[in-house]
């Protein structure tokens, strides 16, 4: 649609151009560099890591100089692909547990009297605003040997043996679920709150008992919220670094931590870049498929 | 609604001439070849993707005219007005104001102001600041702005509400603020987009007259866009009916209602019964039409262009038909039928009569309720006669 | 008014207990006189005193606040422009790429964002420190700021802007006198979100920083790795208190705005 006049359109171009250029420079360009770095050789390439890309005239030479060594290593060394799989597993478990805890919570919030709802919402968001690091740190104090949990269990006489939860997969899962729970609750609450209560009344009027009404009306209608919440938990969980690093142990090696140590401990920047490229692909591929499925469905409707 | 809204018009209305109709008749610049139009649309076309919103349209508005653009939603009337305000650019053609091409002039440099359907009052500004907004953009001195704001508030009878915020006002008051804001810059032309749409019915009626008084008092040119035919007919000196991006008919309201030139206009403005028929004979000013439903009917029409044998439609407004139990022996045009439905509407009753047998055609007859008698002379399934004068029917092209 | 069943009340209580008990425990132990976490040695503000004497931590905090202030301001300005571009100038060339780039940092693992920006700074041979972290934070919080402003702009009555144009305001004057005052609460909320995101970030800062620019989360991280100490609890408590204040201010601001626009 052509609206406005020449000065208006010039202004419009400016409004688009400023953030556009910023993102091209600080988002897209860095990616190109990561991509190129992933094809570089660690042994010979110290910063600034030749081969530099020298324009399209030398594209052939450039491609010839690309080194697939890093990706070969990622495929061969079980450390890498196992940690990818392990990250997906932890992220999936985190998503499921967060859904199991978050759905009843969101449902209860959406069923609460309206004047309480905004307060409940703030209460869910508030921990999200406090530092990530602080929330993880709080769990160290609870889970560590002779920490709060052990004290409470001993005090109530359940068990006097220390549970030794810290530095285990269970600790990582607890920390992940705790940190990402708000991301699950918020979209679920938004979906459930919008749900027309008269639909449930209609179901009851047509003879459905409360549970049947829930299973046949509420649950199917809240699927968009479940999907959104799951995506918001799963995607960042895969690349998570801080939680497995602080709460996990030697056997909870997630890919974010691998990238971190390749970079900071081994100083192998090309390999770290290759890890990043593969991680991105692992994350983007399912998202792109999901988006495509949604688009085709939208187009058909 | 409050007392301010309701009582405001009394003094103004008292000033009105006894018969506004006769006054309005004298004002016909569109029939005066020497009159200079204020606004001219010359072959203007506007498309959105595949839809042609305004289609090769030409139109002239004259100074001091109250012009109404009437049409169903999606007919292009809003696009036409937004092009005049400068929010849309025509794809072809040009728009002149006082003889100057303003097609490429951006909205903020046009001496045209608009009253928005939603009023678009700035919620973060007070009433006074809303009215002053346009004056501040002109860079007028502070005292001048204060004076003009006070003048505008007095004009729309909102004195003393200057400090209020827009959300603290009633619907009628909000409309007045919007009006004052758009009048404050003394535009050459004021555009009003569905100005009464957000008002309740009682307030709407009083505001219509008030707007007319304001317009004649200030000597401004108004263009109202509306889908409400009562509104257009009450206020306008001249109105245009728009359909599919074209102006179907332009003329004074009574002309549009009593002499529509097409079946679309006849059916869009007011209620009408349409009878299909063939011209049997044209004798002087009397046209005889053979209809399938009502037999031969006679019309008094300037029918020079009609020829015998031609298929036409006869339009008949419901209020121009007389209903009786006994056959009206004197009547030239009459037809018998059976009452199928009676709708009591308070001021009149709409009776639906089936003529031409059970598979015939339902004709609407409007009966004015002149007495408070509850018992009605007509009942369902009554056999009745419909009759009308030769001047009542009108000829519509197929 | 409907009543909550006992099951739903349980879900609320358990859910919020899970969310809040760890934080409350952390706060409680910051007031413990004993250094041992297992022993309650009585109420004391000793660790807050010790914190005030911890100069490296205070320096890091001051650096983080300045950094968050600048990066949040840049991110909000760019995010607002991006939101205007997406909502107002609907179909421009490269819109899909643009929308993708705005939203990608929301989903991107922080390790990747950090790594890629570091590689950019290295290849551009920029000296790393305060400004590189600021740019990195502004880039990744831009998308969050954009979403907050975008949702507000989407519900914006465009006839208000048209009315301003109609009354003689140029596009720029329209933005300053009508658009900005009306989206202001969302812009403020976006700024606060960007501010806390920057204040909270460990990973991206670790990648993009240089010598002499150690942020508060980086200091805390190395302290936490060494184990639990009441001093860290005290530092965390102060941060929680500060964030709570900001969030309450923000929600009050938004609520007032909702009342005004209702």
Overall pLDDT confidence of chain B: 87
Morphology call of chain B: globular
Radius of gyration of chain B: 25 Å
Helix content of chain B: 25-40%
- DSSP E strands of chain A, number: 0
CA-based shape of chain A:
globular
Query: Can you give the mean pLDDT of chain A?
Result: 80
Describe this structure in words.
- The complex is a heterotrimer of chains A (301), B (398) and C (262).
- Chain A is mostly helical and 301 residues long.
- Chain A contains 14 helices and no strands.
- Chain B contains 11 helices and 20 strands.
- Chain B starts with a helix and ends with a strand.
- In chain B, the strands form 4 sheets. In chain B, strands 6-7-8-3-9-10 form a 6-stranded mixed beta sheet, with helices on both faces.
- Chain B is 26% helix and 33% strand.
- Chain B has 2 domains: 3-111 and 187-264, P-loop containing nucleotide triphosphate hydrolases (Rossmann fold), CATH 3.40.50.300; 271-396, Beta Barrel (OB fold (Dihydrolipoamide Acetyltransferase, E2P)), CATH 2.40.50.
- With 398 residues, chain B is α+β, with helices and mostly antiparallel strands.
- Chain C has a single domain (55-261), classed as MetI-like fold.
- In chain C, 78% of the residues lie in helices and 0% in strands.
- Chain C contains 11 helices and no strands.
- The model of chain C has no long low-confidence stretch (mean pLDDT 85).
- Chains in contact: A-B, A-C, B-C.
- The interface between A and C is large, with 89 and 84 residues.
Question: What topology does this entry show?
Answer:
The complex is a heterotrimer of chains A (301), B (398) and C (262).
Chain A (H helix, E strand, L loop, with lengths): L5 H33 L20 H7 L3 H8 L1 H34 L2 H16 L2 H12 L4 H8 L13 H26 L2 H9 L4 H12 L1 H16 L3 H6 L7 H10 L4 H32 L1
Helix pairs in contact in A: 1-14, 3-4, 4-8, 4-11, 5-8, 6-8, 8-11, 9-10, 13-14
Chain B lengths: L2 H5 L2 H6 L4 H7 L12 E10 L2 E11 L4 E6 L5 H9 L6 E6 L2 E2 L10 E4 L11 H11 L4 H14 L15 H13 L5 E5 L7 H18 L2 E6 L2 H7 L2 E6 L2 E6 L1 H6 L4 H6 L4 E11 L2 E6 L3 E6 L10 E6 L5 E3 L8 E12 L3 E8 L5 E8 L14 E6 L5 E3 L2
Parallel strand pairs in B: 3-8, 3-9, 6-7, 7-8
Antiparallel strand pairs in B: 1-2, 1-4, 4-5, 9-10, 11-12, 11-14, 12-13, 14-20, 15-19, 16-17, 16-19, 17-18
Helix pairs in contact in B: 5-6, 5-7, 6-7
Chain C lengths: L5 H24 L16 H7 L2 H34 L6 H13 L2 H14 L6 H25 L3 H9 L4 H30 L2 H6 L7 H11 L3 H32 L1
């Amino acid at each position: 649609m052509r609206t406005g006049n020449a000065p208006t359109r010039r202004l419009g171009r400016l409004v688009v151009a400023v953030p556009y250029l910023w993102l091209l420079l600080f988002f897209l360009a860095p990616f190109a560099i990561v991509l190129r770095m992933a094809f570089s050789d660690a042994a010979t390439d110290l910063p600034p890591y030749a081969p530099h890309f020298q324009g399209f005239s030398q594209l052939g030479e450039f491609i010839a100089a690309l080194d697939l060594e890093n990706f070969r290593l990622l495929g061969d060394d079980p450390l890498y692909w196992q940690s990818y799989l392990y990250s997906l597993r932890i992220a999936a478990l985190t998503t499921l547990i967060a859904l199991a805890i978050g759905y009843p919570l969101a449902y209860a919030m959406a069923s609460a009297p309206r004047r309480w709802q905004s307060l409940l919402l703030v209460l869910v968001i508030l921990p999200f605003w406090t530092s990530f690091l602080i929330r993880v740190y709080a769990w160290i104090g609870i889970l560590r040997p002779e920490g709060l949990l052990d004290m409470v269990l001993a005090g109530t006489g359940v068990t006097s043996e220390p549970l030794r939860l810290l530095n285990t997969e269970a600790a990582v899962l607890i920390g992940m679920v705790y940190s990402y729970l708000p991301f699950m609750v918020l979209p679920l609450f938004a979906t459930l709150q919008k749900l027309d209560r008269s639909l449930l009344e209609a179901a009851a009027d047509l003879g459905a008992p409360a549970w049947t009404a829930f299973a046949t009306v509420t649950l199917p209608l809240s699927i968009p919220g479940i999907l959104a919440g799951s995506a918001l938990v799963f995607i960042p969980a895969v690349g998570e670094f801080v939680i497995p690093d602080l709460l996990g142990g030697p056997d909870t090696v997630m890919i974010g931590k691998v990238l971190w140590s390749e970079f900071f401990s081994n100083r192998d920047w090309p390999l770290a870049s290759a890890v990043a490229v593969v991680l991105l692909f692992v994350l983007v591929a399912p998202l792109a498929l999901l988006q495509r499925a949604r688009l085709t469905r939208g187009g058909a409707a | 609604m409050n007392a301010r809204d309701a009582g405001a018009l009394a003094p103004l209305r008292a000033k009105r001439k006894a018969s506004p109709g006769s006054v309005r008749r004298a004002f016909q610049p569109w029939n005066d070849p020497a009159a200079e139009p204020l606004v001219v649309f010359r072959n203007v076309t506007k498309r959105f993707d595949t839809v042609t919103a305004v289609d090769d349209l030409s139109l002239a508005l004259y100074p001091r005219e109250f012009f109404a653009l009437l049409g169903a939603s999606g007919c292009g009337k809003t696009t036409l007005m937004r092009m005049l305000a400068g929010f849309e650019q025509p794809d072809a053609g040009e728009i002149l104001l006082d003889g100057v091409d303003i097609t490429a002039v951006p909205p903020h440099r046009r001496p045209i102001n608009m009253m928005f359907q939603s009023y678009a009052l700035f919620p973060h500004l007070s009433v006074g600041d809303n009215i002053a907004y346009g004056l501040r953009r002109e860079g007028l001195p502070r005292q001048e702005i204060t004076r003009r704001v006070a003048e505008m508030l007095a004009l729309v009878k909102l004195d003393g509400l200057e400090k209020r915020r827009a959300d603290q006002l009633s619907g009628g008051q909000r409309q007045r603020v919007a009006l004052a804001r758009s009048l404050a810059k003394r535009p050459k032309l004021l555009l009003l987009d569905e100005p009464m749409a957000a008002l309740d019915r009682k307030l709407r009626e009083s505001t219509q007259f008030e707007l007319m008084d304001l317009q004649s008092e200030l000597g401004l040119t108004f263009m109202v866009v509306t889908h409400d035919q009562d509104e257009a007919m009450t206020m306008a000196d001249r109105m245009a009916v728009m359909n599919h991006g074209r102006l179907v008919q332009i003329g004074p309201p009574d002309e549009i209602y009593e002499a529509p030139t097409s079946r679309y206009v006849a059916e869009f403005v007011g209620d009408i019964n349409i009878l299909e028929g063939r011209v049997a004979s044209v004798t002087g000013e009397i046209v005889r039409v053979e209809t399938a439903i009502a037999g031969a009917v006679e019309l008094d029409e300037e029918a020079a262009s009609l020829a015998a044998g031609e298929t036409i439609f006869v339009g008949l407004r419901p209020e121009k038909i007389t209903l009786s139990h006994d056959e009206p022996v004197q009547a030239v045009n009459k037809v018998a039928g059976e009452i199928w439905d009676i709708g009591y509407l308070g001021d009149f009753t709409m009776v639906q009569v089936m003529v031409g047998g059970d598979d015939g055609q339902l004709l609407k007859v409007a009966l004015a309720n002149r007495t408070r008698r509850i018992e009605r002379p007509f009942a369902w399934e009554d056999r009745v006669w419909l009759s009308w004068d030769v001047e009542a029917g009108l000829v519509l092209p197929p | 008014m409907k009543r909550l069943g006992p099951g739903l009340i349980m879900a609320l209580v358990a859910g919020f207990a899970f969310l809040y008990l760890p934080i409350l425990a952390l706060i409680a132990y910051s007031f413990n006189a004993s250094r041992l976490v297992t022993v309650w040695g009585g109420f004391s503000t000793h660790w807050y005193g010790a914190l005030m004497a911890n100069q490296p931590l205070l320096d890091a905090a001051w650096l983080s606040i300045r950094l968050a202030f600048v990066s949040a301001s840049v991110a909000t300005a760019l995010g607002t422009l991006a939101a205007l571009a997406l909502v107002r100038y609907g179909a421009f060339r490269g819109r899909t790429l643009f929308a993708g780039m705005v939203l990608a940092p929301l989903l991107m693992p922080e390790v990747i964002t950090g790594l890629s920006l570091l590689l950019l700074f290295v290849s551009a041979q920029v000296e790393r420190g305060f400004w590189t972290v600021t740019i990195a934070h502004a880039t990744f919080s831009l998308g969050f700021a954009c979403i907050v402003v975008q949702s507000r702009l989407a519900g914006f009555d465009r006839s208000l802007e048209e009315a301003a144009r109609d009354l003689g305001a140029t596009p720029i004057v329209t933005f300053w006198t009508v658009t900005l005052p009306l989206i202001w609460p969302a812009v403020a909320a976006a700024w606060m979100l960007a501010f806390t995101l920057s204040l909270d970030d460990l990973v991206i800062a670790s990648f993009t920083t240089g010598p002499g620019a150690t942020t508060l989360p980086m200091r805390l991280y190395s302290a936490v790795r060494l184990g639990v100490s009441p001093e860290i609890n005290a530092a965390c408590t102060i941060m929680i208190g500060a964030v709570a204040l900001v969030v309450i201010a923000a929600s009050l601001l938004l609520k007032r705005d909702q009342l005004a626009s209702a």
